[in-house]
Protein backbone atom coordinates (compact mmCIF):
# COMPACT_ATOMS: atom_id res chain seq x y z
CA UNK A 1 0.00 0.00 0.00
CA UNK A 2 1.37 3.42 -0.97
CA UNK A 3 1.50 6.65 0.96
CA UNK A 4 -1.25 8.12 -1.24
CA UNK A 5 -3.73 5.61 0.17
CA UNK A 6 -3.01 6.75 3.73
CA UNK A 7 -3.22 10.50 3.37
CA UNK A 8 -6.27 10.89 1.14
CA UNK A 9 -8.86 12.54 3.38
CA UNK A 10 -6.45 13.28 6.28
CA UNK A 11 -4.89 15.82 6.81
CA UNK A 12 11.60 27.21 18.24
CA UNK A 13 14.04 26.42 15.51
CA UNK A 14 17.81 26.53 15.63
CA UNK A 15 20.80 25.19 13.80
CA UNK A 16 19.60 25.35 10.20
CA UNK A 17 22.44 26.47 8.24
CA UNK A 18 24.67 28.62 10.32
CA UNK A 19 23.97 31.41 7.85
CA UNK A 20 20.18 31.19 7.69
CA UNK A 21 18.00 33.44 9.83
CA UNK A 22 14.46 32.76 11.00
CA UNK A 23 13.15 35.07 8.29
CA UNK A 24 14.95 33.50 5.35
CA UNK A 25 14.12 34.78 1.89
CA UNK A 26 12.69 32.70 -0.90
CA UNK A 27 14.18 31.50 -4.17
CA UNK A 28 12.04 32.12 -7.24
CA UNK A 29 8.82 34.09 -7.42
CA UNK A 30 7.22 32.78 -4.22
CA UNK A 31 7.82 30.86 -1.01
CA UNK A 32 7.00 27.38 -2.29
CA UNK A 33 6.67 25.13 0.76
CA UNK A 34 3.28 23.46 1.27
CA UNK A 35 1.81 20.98 3.79
CA UNK A 36 0.18 17.59 3.38
CA UNK A 37 -3.16 19.41 3.58
CA UNK A 38 -2.47 20.74 0.08
CA UNK A 39 -3.86 17.79 -1.86
CA UNK A 40 -3.26 19.49 -5.20
CA UNK A 41 0.47 19.68 -4.44
CA UNK A 42 0.99 16.03 -3.54
CA UNK A 43 -1.67 14.29 -5.62
CA UNK A 44 0.26 14.85 -8.85
CA UNK A 45 3.55 13.52 -7.50
CA UNK A 46 4.71 10.18 -8.91
CA UNK A 47 3.96 7.40 -6.43
CA UNK A 48 7.67 6.75 -5.85
CA UNK A 49 8.17 10.35 -4.72
CA UNK A 50 4.94 10.57 -2.74
CA UNK A 51 5.99 7.51 -0.73
CA UNK A 52 9.17 9.34 0.28
CA UNK A 53 7.14 11.87 2.27
CA UNK A 54 6.90 9.22 4.99
CA UNK A 55 10.68 9.25 5.57
CA UNK A 56 11.42 12.76 6.98
CA UNK A 57 11.38 12.90 10.78
CA UNK A 58 11.32 15.88 13.11
CA UNK A 59 14.13 15.83 15.65
CA UNK A 60 12.85 17.29 18.89
CA UNK A 61 15.40 18.53 21.40
CA UNK A 62 14.65 20.52 24.56
CA UNK A 63 13.73 23.96 23.23
CA UNK A 64 14.40 23.45 19.52
CA UNK A 65 13.99 21.09 16.59
CA UNK A 66 15.52 20.10 13.26
CA UNK A 67 15.01 17.53 10.51
CA UNK A 68 16.33 14.07 9.74
CA UNK A 69 15.60 11.20 7.38
CA UNK A 70 14.73 7.59 8.14
CA UNK A 71 16.96 5.43 5.96
CA UNK A 72 15.56 1.98 6.75
CA UNK A 73 16.28 -1.16 8.72
CA UNK A 74 19.64 -2.79 8.01
CA UNK A 75 20.80 -5.94 9.79
CA UNK A 76 18.13 -5.31 12.41
CA UNK A 77 19.10 -1.68 13.09
CA UNK A 78 16.91 1.33 12.25
CA UNK A 79 19.25 3.86 10.61
CA UNK A 80 18.69 7.60 10.46
CA UNK A 81 20.67 10.48 9.01
CA UNK A 82 20.84 14.17 9.82
CA UNK A 83 23.29 17.07 9.64
CA UNK A 84 26.26 16.73 11.96
CA UNK A 85 25.85 20.32 13.12
CA UNK A 86 22.46 19.15 14.46
CA UNK A 87 23.62 15.93 16.13
CA UNK A 88 27.23 15.08 16.93
CA UNK A 89 27.43 14.11 20.61
CA UNK A 90 26.04 11.27 22.69
CA UNK A 91 24.59 13.77 25.17
CA UNK A 92 22.36 15.23 22.45
CA UNK A 93 21.51 11.72 21.26
CA UNK A 94 20.12 10.83 24.68
CA UNK A 95 17.80 13.86 24.67
CA UNK A 96 16.24 13.74 21.21
CA UNK A 97 12.88 12.38 20.11
CA UNK A 98 12.46 11.49 16.44
CA UNK A 99 8.87 12.16 15.39
CA UNK A 100 7.55 10.51 12.21
CA UNK A 101 5.11 13.28 11.38
CA UNK A 102 3.63 11.69 8.25
CA UNK A 103 3.19 8.32 9.98
CA UNK A 104 1.38 10.12 12.80
CA UNK A 105 -1.08 11.33 10.16
CA UNK A 106 -1.47 7.82 8.80
CA UNK A 107 -1.91 6.01 12.11
CA UNK A 108 -3.66 8.68 14.16
CA UNK A 109 -1.16 8.19 16.99
CA UNK A 110 2.39 9.43 17.70
CA UNK A 111 5.11 7.39 16.01
CA UNK A 112 8.35 8.25 17.81
CA UNK A 113 11.87 6.88 18.20
CA UNK A 114 14.72 7.69 20.56
CA UNK A 115 18.40 7.85 19.61
CA UNK A 116 20.12 4.65 20.67
CA UNK A 117 23.63 5.34 19.35
CA UNK A 118 25.60 7.64 17.08
CA UNK A 119 27.34 5.50 14.47
CA UNK A 120 29.43 8.02 12.55
CA UNK A 121 29.95 11.80 12.50
CA UNK A 122 31.33 13.09 9.19
CA UNK A 123 32.06 16.86 9.28
CA UNK A 124 33.29 17.01 5.67
CA UNK A 125 29.76 16.15 4.52
CA UNK A 126 27.94 17.55 7.58
CA UNK A 127 26.32 14.18 8.16
CA UNK A 128 25.64 12.02 11.20
CA UNK A 129 24.49 8.43 10.88
CA UNK A 130 22.67 7.14 13.95
CA UNK A 131 20.58 4.24 15.19
CA UNK A 132 17.10 4.75 16.59
CA UNK A 133 14.91 2.68 18.86
CA UNK A 134 11.10 2.67 18.97
CA UNK A 135 9.74 4.35 22.08
CA UNK A 136 6.74 2.02 22.17
CA UNK A 137 5.46 -1.12 20.47
CA UNK A 138 3.06 0.66 18.09
CA UNK A 139 5.83 2.95 16.84
CA UNK A 140 8.02 -0.06 16.14
CA UNK A 141 5.25 -1.78 14.18
CA UNK A 142 4.53 1.32 12.09
CA UNK A 143 8.18 1.89 11.18
CA UNK A 144 8.74 -1.79 10.43
CA UNK A 145 5.90 -1.47 7.91
CA UNK A 146 7.67 1.54 6.38
CA UNK A 147 11.09 -0.16 6.36
CA UNK A 148 9.80 -3.15 4.41
CA UNK A 149 8.73 -0.86 1.57
CA UNK A 150 10.92 2.22 1.55
CA UNK A 151 14.62 1.89 2.32
CA UNK A 152 16.95 4.66 1.22
CA UNK A 153 20.49 3.74 0.22
CA UNK A 154 23.27 6.15 -0.86
CA UNK A 155 23.76 4.33 -4.15
CA UNK A 156 23.76 7.30 -6.50
CA UNK A 157 26.64 8.15 -8.82
CA UNK A 158 27.84 11.61 -9.83
CA UNK A 159 26.24 11.07 -13.23
CA UNK A 160 22.80 10.85 -11.58
CA UNK A 161 23.03 14.54 -10.60
CA UNK A 162 21.88 16.32 -13.75
CA UNK A 163 21.69 20.12 -13.87
CA UNK A 164 18.06 21.21 -13.92
CA UNK A 165 16.69 17.89 -12.63
CA UNK A 166 13.46 18.27 -10.66
CA UNK A 167 13.78 17.76 -6.92
CA UNK A 168 11.54 17.25 -3.91
CA UNK A 169 12.60 18.64 -0.52
CA UNK A 170 10.71 17.71 2.65
CA UNK A 171 11.44 18.89 6.18
CA UNK A 172 10.34 20.86 9.20
CA UNK A 173 11.65 24.37 8.54
CA UNK A 174 10.03 27.13 10.56
CA UNK A 175 9.40 29.87 7.96
CA UNK A 176 5.63 30.32 7.71
CA UNK A 177 5.38 27.18 9.83
CA UNK A 178 5.42 28.11 13.54
CA UNK A 179 4.35 24.63 14.70
CA UNK A 180 6.95 23.01 12.41
CA UNK A 181 4.75 20.47 10.71
CA UNK A 182 6.08 18.62 7.67
CA UNK A 183 6.23 20.83 4.59
CA UNK A 184 7.66 20.14 1.17
CA UNK A 185 8.74 21.91 -2.01
CA UNK A 186 7.87 20.37 -5.37
CA UNK A 187 7.74 23.66 -7.28
CA UNK A 188 9.32 24.27 -10.67
CA UNK A 189 12.11 26.18 -8.91
CA UNK A 190 13.04 23.17 -6.76
CA UNK A 191 15.71 21.69 -8.98
CA UNK A 192 19.47 21.16 -9.17
CA UNK A 193 21.08 24.48 -10.09
CA UNK A 194 24.78 23.59 -9.99
CA UNK A 195 26.36 21.83 -12.95
CA UNK A 196 25.80 18.14 -13.64
CA UNK A 197 27.88 15.89 -11.40
CA UNK A 198 29.91 18.85 -10.15
CA UNK A 199 30.10 19.25 -6.38
CA UNK A 200 32.07 21.82 -4.40
CA UNK A 201 33.39 22.00 -0.83
CA UNK A 202 32.09 25.32 0.52
CA UNK A 203 31.86 27.21 3.80
CA UNK A 204 28.44 28.10 5.17
CA UNK A 205 27.22 31.06 3.10
CA UNK A 206 28.24 34.40 4.54
CA UNK A 207 31.12 32.99 6.60
CA UNK A 208 34.86 33.10 6.08
CA UNK A 209 36.02 30.24 8.29
CA UNK A 210 34.94 26.86 9.54
CA UNK A 211 34.42 23.43 8.04
CA UNK A 212 33.97 23.23 4.29
CA UNK A 213 31.26 20.80 3.24
CA UNK A 214 30.79 18.93 -0.05
CA UNK A 215 27.74 20.51 -1.64
CA UNK A 216 25.35 20.83 -4.54
CA UNK A 217 23.37 24.04 -5.12
CA UNK A 218 19.59 23.79 -5.32
CA UNK A 219 16.69 26.16 -5.95
CA UNK A 220 14.36 24.64 -3.34
CA UNK A 221 13.12 26.85 -0.50
CA UNK A 222 14.47 26.08 2.98
CA UNK A 223 14.52 27.72 6.41
CA UNK A 224 15.66 27.12 10.01
CA UNK A 225 14.67 23.63 11.13
CA UNK A 226 15.36 22.08 7.72
CA UNK A 227 18.94 21.06 8.50
CA UNK A 228 19.09 17.32 7.84
CA UNK A 229 15.97 17.31 5.64
CA UNK A 230 16.08 14.87 2.71
CA UNK A 231 16.18 15.85 -0.94
CA UNK A 232 14.82 13.42 -3.56
CA UNK A 233 14.68 13.10 -7.32
CA UNK A 234 11.08 14.20 -7.80
CA UNK A 235 10.44 11.81 -10.68
CA UNK A 236 11.98 8.61 -9.32
CA UNK A 237 11.98 9.07 -5.54
CA UNK A 238 15.74 8.43 -5.41
CA UNK A 239 17.35 9.87 -2.28
CA UNK A 240 19.83 12.53 -3.47
CA UNK A 241 21.12 14.01 -0.18
CA UNK A 242 20.30 16.24 2.79
CA UNK A 243 20.01 20.00 3.31
CA UNK A 244 22.80 21.57 5.34
CA UNK A 245 23.11 25.30 4.51
CA UNK A 246 21.56 28.33 2.87
CA UNK A 247 21.82 32.10 2.50
CA UNK A 248 19.66 34.10 4.92
CA UNK A 249 19.22 37.05 2.55
CA UNK A 250 19.89 35.90 -1.02
CA UNK A 251 20.52 38.38 -3.80
CA UNK A 252 17.16 40.02 -4.71
CA UNK A 253 17.57 38.89 -8.31
CA UNK A 254 17.04 35.31 -7.10
CA UNK A 255 13.44 36.14 -6.13
CA UNK A 256 12.64 35.81 -9.82
CA UNK A 257 12.02 32.31 -11.17
CA UNK A 258 13.16 33.12 -14.70
CA UNK A 259 16.48 34.46 -13.42
CA UNK A 260 16.91 31.57 -10.97
CA UNK A 261 16.45 28.98 -13.68
CA UNK A 262 18.86 30.85 -15.97
CA UNK A 263 21.58 29.86 -13.47
CA UNK A 264 21.13 26.12 -14.07
CA UNK A 265 24.57 24.77 -14.94
CA UNK A 266 25.92 28.33 -15.30
CA UNK A 267 29.28 29.56 -13.92
CA UNK A 268 27.67 32.46 -11.99
CA UNK A 269 29.20 33.21 -8.58
CA UNK A 270 25.66 33.37 -7.16
CA UNK A 271 25.37 29.60 -7.57
CA UNK A 272 27.89 29.03 -4.79
CA UNK A 273 27.08 32.00 -2.57
CA UNK A 274 23.34 32.74 -2.44
CA UNK A 275 21.32 29.54 -2.92
CA UNK A 276 20.45 26.63 -0.63
CA UNK A 277 22.84 23.71 -0.38
CA UNK A 278 22.55 19.97 0.07
CA UNK A 279 25.18 17.31 0.62
CA UNK A 280 24.98 14.74 -2.22
CA UNK A 281 24.27 11.17 -1.10
CA UNK A 282 27.18 9.94 -3.22
CA UNK A 283 29.57 12.13 -1.20
CA UNK A 284 28.07 10.91 2.07
CA UNK A 285 28.70 7.31 1.02
CA UNK A 286 32.28 8.06 0.00
CA UNK A 287 33.04 9.80 3.30
CA UNK A 288 31.53 6.97 5.32
CA UNK A 289 33.47 4.30 3.40
CA UNK A 290 36.67 6.23 4.10
CA UNK A 291 35.84 6.22 7.82
CA UNK A 292 34.58 2.67 8.31
CA UNK A 293 37.62 2.00 10.49
CA UNK A 294 36.11 4.32 13.11
CA UNK A 295 32.70 2.61 13.22
CA UNK A 296 32.01 0.55 16.33
CA UNK A 297 32.24 -3.14 15.32
CA UNK A 298 28.81 -3.65 16.91
CA UNK A 299 27.30 -1.46 14.16
CA UNK A 300 29.61 -2.31 11.28
CA UNK A 301 27.38 -4.93 9.65
CA UNK A 302 24.44 -2.52 9.54
CA UNK A 303 26.55 0.22 7.96
CA UNK A 304 28.06 -2.11 5.38
CA UNK A 305 24.58 -3.38 4.49
CA UNK A 306 23.36 0.20 4.02
CA UNK A 307 26.30 1.00 1.75
CA UNK A 308 25.66 -1.94 -0.60
Fold topology:
Blueprint: H1 3-7, E1 34-35, H2 39-43, H3 47-52, E2 56-61, E3 64-74, E4 77-82, H4 90-93, E5 97-99, H5 101-107, E6 112-122, E7 127-134, H6 137-147, E8 167-171, E9 183-185, E10 200-202, E11 213-218, E12 230-233, E13 239-246, H7 257-262, E14 276-280, H8 281-290, H9 297-306
Adjacency order of strands in the biggest sheet? 1-9-8-12-13-14-11-10
CATH architecture of the domain at 158-282: Beta Barrel
CATH uppermost class of the domain at 158-282: Mainly Beta
Q: What's the end-to-end separation, in Å?
A: 26 Å
Strand content: 25-35%
Helix content: 10-25%
Give the overall shape.
globular
Low-confidence stretches at least 5 residues in length (pLDDT < 50)? 1-23
Biggest β-sheet description: 8 strands, antiparallel
Which structural class should the secondary elements be placed in? alpha+beta
Write the H/E string, N to C.
HEHHEEEHEHEEHEEEEEEHEHH
Helices, by number, come to: 9
| Fourth-tier CATH superfamily name of the domain at 158-282 | Trypsin-like serine proteases
Q: Kindly report the oligomeric state of this protein.
A: single chain
Task: Output mean pLDDT.
Answer: 90
Strands, total number: 14
Radius of gyration: 18 Å
CATH topology of the domain at 158-282: Thrombin, subunit H
List keywords for this structure.
308 residues; alpha+beta; 21% helix; 9 helices; six-stranded antiparallel barrel; 14 strands
